[in-house]
Amino acid sequence: MKIKNNILRKLKKKLDNTSLTIGSWLQLDEANSALIISKSKFEWIAVDLEHGFFSENNLPNMFKSILMGGAIPFARLQDSSKTSIVRAMDAGAYGLIIPNIESKEQLQDVVKFANYPPKGKRGVGYCPANNYGNNFEGYIETIKNPIIIAMIESKKGLENIDKIITCEGFNGILIGPYDLSASLNITGKFSNKKFKSAIKKILGTCKLNKKSAGIHQVKPSISDLKKLIKQGFNFIPYGMDSVFLSNNYPDIKK
Questions:
Q1: How far are the Cα atoms of 13, 66, 96, 188, 210 from residue 6, in angstroms, in the given order?
Q2: CB-based contact 94:147 (threshold 8 Å)
Q3: Engineered SS bond to 179: which of 33, 130, 153, 160, CB 3.0-4.6 Å?
Q4: DSSP type of residue 72
Q5: Does the pLDDT at position 253 exceed 70?
Q6: Which domains does the chain have, with CATH numbers?
């Protein structure tokens, strides 16, 4: 399925200008639910290939359903390897969220693997993303400078944030709150001073370098969302399919 270039350009412009953009998250390997969620007002939807369980054969259908619903399909990868990057993009992801970035060199490799020559080293060929060659030229034009979001999820990544932020060719930072807190030995304790200090450092570095900053708000809450925006976050994954389902079960015991 073709994507309208202006939709992708609009999102890139928002990221470049650190303007607010809100998306969501998928863990369930179900194209119909992906379509339903993408028909909401989310601008992008991330398919979680790290903690979700997705059939590789169904990935193109997931990304197509997100496009059909009017959102930009992202892939949250398992790792930063060339194989993970290329497989997700060939399946139809237009944006990449890369877990556990800990050095500038690691992120530079991601940029290289995600881009076609001469800028990068992504292999060129027919694939679901270009409709097996039927949209070959259009896809090549659309996917120039793909959206790349680097996740900071560890103490090492936090320590190297000043160097990581200077990498060229990526669009923003996304904090993985649970993994980052675990790396700081305060798992899930988001009110801890050590965690708050880490968040402040990442936000400050992003602001200084005019990079988008994000954090995943797992549990849906408009009041909490407003607090994150007020803090300075502008790239926010809001909730996810599994949580939306859990939160809407009727309490039949009452």
A1: 10, 16, 19, 39, 23
A2: yes
A3: 153
A4: E
A5: no
A6: 5-238 (3.20.20.60)
